[in-house]
C-alpha cells in the first residue's frame, strides 16, 4: 500500500511516499481502506523527532482517518465489512490502509463526506476530554481558547458555543480574530496587537475566564492565571511557546485555580474509548445537525504530505489541513 514515512527527523522534505505491506488488524481492531486523513500539529512534532509514537503504534504518521472497513479482528462486534467510519488512531493514518481499534471508530455523522469526517476525531476527542470533562466547562461559563483558528481552536469555538458557553479566542491577525467571531466567539482577540489579559478583564467586568484552553504555555501560563476567574480551570494541551513557566503560587491559591494538562495519543485505549462514547452521544448529534462543522482549509494528495506539513508550520491556515488518498493520481490502490 502507499504510505508516508518519516525518513529521518527533520523538515517536511523528510516525508517520503513509500510502499508498505497492508497491516493486519489485531483481535480488537478493524482494517480501514483510507479515503482521507487529517494532518495535526502533533504529526509535525513527530516528524521533527520530538513526539515518538507510543509503544505498539505505527511509525507512519496520522492520528485520524476515514474510510471503509475491509477486515475485522476476531473480537470485533458492532462493525461490519463495508461500514463507513472515521477513527481516532495512535498513528498510521497517512497510508492506503490503517488499522484502528474498533472502539475508537465512529460512524460518519449526518451527511458529511469522508473528507469532512476524517477532519473530526483528533480535535473533537481532544476538545471534549479537556474542555468539557477535565475543565468541566458548562453553559454560562466564560471560555478563553488560544490558537482560535487552529484545528483545535475552530472545533473548540463551535462546540463551546453550541453548548451555551461564552467563548473568547486569541489568534495571530485581525482577519483570524474575525473568523473566530464568525464561528461563534463573542470576541476574537488579535494577540499581536491586543493584550488578552486586559481584554478578558474588560469584557467580563473584571471577573475573568472560567476555563482556558492553552496550547502555548511558556509565558502564557502566568498570563492565563491573570486572565482566569475565581475557581478558574486552565488546561494545557501543547507547549508551542515553551515548556517552562514561572507562576505566582499565591495567585493560584487566592483564585482557587486548577492547572492541568493531558495528552490524548498516549492515553490508555479504555480511556479513549470512554471519550469516543461521550463524543458519539454528545457531539455527533451537533455535527449531524450542522452546528459543529469541520473547517477545512485545504486538501493535499497523500503523496504531497510534505507540502501539507509546510503549510501547517507556516500557520497561514485556518482550520484543518487534510490528505486525500483515493484522489491521489500517483497512487494505485489494490484491495488486499
Ligand atoms: N495534548 C493533546 O492531546 C493534543 C491533541 C491534539 C493537538 N494538540 C496540540 O494542540 C495544538 C493545536 O493543534 P492543531 O493540530 O489544531 O494545530 P494547528 O492547526 O497547526 O494550530 C496551531 C496554531 O497555534 C498558533 N500558534 C503557533 N505558535 C504559536 C505561538 N508561539 N503563540 C501563539 N500561538 C501560536 C497558530 O495560529 P496563530 O496564527 O493564531 O498564531 C497556529 O494556527 C498543537 O500544538 C497540538 O500539538 C494537543
Question: In a nutshell, what does this entry contain?
Answer:
With 336 residues, the protein is α/β, with parallel strands linked by helices. It has helices spanning 41-48, 114-118, 121-134, 151-162, 174-183, 196-203, 220-227, 249-254, 269-288, 305-314; strands at 2-6, 15-19, 29-39, 64-72, 84-88, 97-101, 105-107, 142-145, 166-171, 187-190, 209-214, 228-236, 258-261, 296-301, 320-324.
Structure write-up:
With 336 residues, this protein is of the alpha/beta class. It is 30% helix and 26% strand. It contains ten helices and 15 strands. It has helices at residues 41-48, 114-118, 121-134, 151-162, 174-183, 196-203, 220-227, 249-254, 269-288, 305-314; strands at 2-6, 15-19, 29-39, 64-72, 84-88, 97-101, 105-107, 142-145, 166-171, 187-190, 209-214, 228-236, 258-261, 296-301, 320-324. The strands form three sheets. Strands 3, 4, 5, 6, 7, 14 and 15 form a seven-stranded mixed beta sheet that branches. It has a six-stranded parallel beta sheet with strand order 10-9-8-11-12-13, sandwiched between helices. Strands 1-2 form a two-stranded antiparallel sheet. Helix 3 packs across helix 9 (269-288). The longest helix is centred in the C-terminal third of the chain and has 20 residues, at 269-288. The radius of gyration is 20 Å and the shape is globular. The N and C termini lie close together (9 Å). The model has no long low-confidence stretch (mean pLDDT 96). NADP nicotinamide-adenine-dinucleotide phosphate binds next to helix 1, helix 3 and helix 4.
Amino acid at each position: 500500500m502507499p504510505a508516508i514515512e518519516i525518513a529521518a527527523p527533520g523538515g517536511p522534505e523528510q516525508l517520503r511516499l513509500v510502499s508498505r505491506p497492508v497491516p493486519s488488524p489485531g483481535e480488537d481492531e478493524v482494517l480501514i481502506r483510507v479515503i482521507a486523513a487529517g494532518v495535526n500539529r502533533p504529526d509535525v512534532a513527530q516528524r521533527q523527532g520530538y513526539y515518538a509514537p507510543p509503544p505498539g503504534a505505527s511509525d507512519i504518521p496520522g492520528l485520524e482517518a476515514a474510510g471503509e472497513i475491509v477486515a475485522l479482528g476476531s473480537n470485533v462486534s458492532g462493525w461490519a465489512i463495508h461500514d463507513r467510519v472515521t477513527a481516532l488512531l495512535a498513528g498510521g493514518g497517512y497510508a492506503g490502509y490503517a488499522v484502528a481499534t474498533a472502539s475508537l471508530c465512529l460512524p460518519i455523522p449526518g451527511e458529511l463526506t469522508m473528507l469532512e469526517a476524517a477532519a473530526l476525531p483528533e480535535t473533537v476527542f481532544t476538545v471534549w476530554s479537556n474542555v468539557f470533562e477535565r475543565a468541566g466547562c458548562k453553559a454560562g461559563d466564560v471560555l478563553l481558547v488560544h490558537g482560535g483558528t487552529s484545528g483545535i481552536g475552530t472545533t473548540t469555538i463551535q462546540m463551546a458555543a453550541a453548548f451555551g458557553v461564552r467563548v473568547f479566542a486569541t489568534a495571530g491577525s485581525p482577519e483570524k480574530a474575525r473568523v473566530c467571531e464568525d464561528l461563534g466567539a463573542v470576541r476574537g482577540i488579535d494577540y499581536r496587537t491586543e493584550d488578552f489579559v486586559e481584554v478578558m478583564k474588560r469584557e467580563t467586568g473584571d471577573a475573568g475566564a472560567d476555563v482556558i484552553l492553552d496550547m502555548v504555555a511558556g509565558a502564557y501560563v502566568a498570563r492565563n492565571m491573570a486572565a482566569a476567574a475565581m475557581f478558574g480551570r486552565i488546561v494545557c494541551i501543547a507547549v508551542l511557546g515553551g515548556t517552562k513557566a514561572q507562576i505566582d503560587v499565591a495567585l493560584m491559591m487566592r483564585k482557587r485555580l486548577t492547572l492541568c494538562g493531558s495528552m490524548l495519543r498516549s492515553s490508555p485505549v479504555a480511556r479513549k474509548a470512554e471519550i469516543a462514547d461521550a463524543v458519539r452521544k454528545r457531539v455527533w448529534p451537533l455535527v449531524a445537525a450542522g452546528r459543529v462543522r469541520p473547517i477545512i482549509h485545504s486538501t493535499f494528495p497523500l503523496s504531497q504530505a510534505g507540502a501539507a506539513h509546510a503549510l501547517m508550520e507556516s500557520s497561514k491556515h485556518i482550520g484543518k489541513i487534510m490528505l486525500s488518498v483515493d484522489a491521489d493520481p500517483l497512487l494505485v490502490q489494490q484491495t488486499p
